[in-house]
Amino acid sequence: xxxxxxxxxxxxxxxxxxxxxxxxxxxxxxxxxxxxxxxxxxxxxxxxxxxxxxxxxxxxxxxxxxxxxxxxxxxxxxxxxxxxxxxxxxxxxxxxxxxxxxxxxxxxxxxxxxxxxxxxxxxxxxx
Length: 127
Known about the structure:
Helices cover 81% and strands 0% of the residues. The chain is mainly α.
């Protein structure tokens, strides 16, 4: 049986972004460790959201929102976004969503900067 559209759609944007990063790495425009970091951070972010969702349902200690935003900012936003959609966690709080999308924009702009001559120079100096 095919997954409902609502279940597939949350994966299209984050998976597409990570695939784009992989393509950029394959073309030599980004180092592979950046792609690997995105995958690891996305899996970590998804797991943290899942733990926080369980804690919310049990009334237990919660993960601070600033931690969730930091994970998104440093590259875990694809996993965080998928978790918001698939787990229905943190998906209805307007303030959280605005800050979340702000972290996504900053992160994507940082990746775009890495593709510029200045960003490539920084990457070359680091590795």
